[in-house]
Amino acid sequence: MNTQTESNKLAVTIVEAARTISVSPRTIQNYIQAGILPSRKIGRRTVILIRDLERFLRSDKRSLKPADADERTGGDIKTRLRSARD
Q1: pTM
Q2: Domains of the chain: residue spans and CATH
């Protein structure tokens, strides 16, 4: 069992980040793939710095609205994710 408390962590895994903000791990992966949530690879594991997760939560990037997105994407997250894959 890990004796380090959650508040002392510098980074969390995708699963931990998802649990923290009550979304699925796939949602976190989608945000990372779209480039709106920074992550880092440590070995085979992808981690998200706590400060990046906090910054992401303070921003409105997790709920993109048409006014927030560029004209090319049309504003919805699914379109942005498709654009990121192309």
Answers
A1: 0.64
A2: 9-85 (1.10.10)
Measured between alpha carbons, how far is 12 from 15 in angstroms, rounded to an integer? Answer: 8
Which long-range CB contacts under 8 A does 73-79 form with residues at least 24 apart? Answer: 77/30, 77/34
pLDDT higher for 28 or 79?
Answer: 28
Q: How far apart are CA 34 and CA 67, in angstroms?
A: 18
Model confidence band, residue 60 (pLDDT cutoffs 50, 70, 90): confident
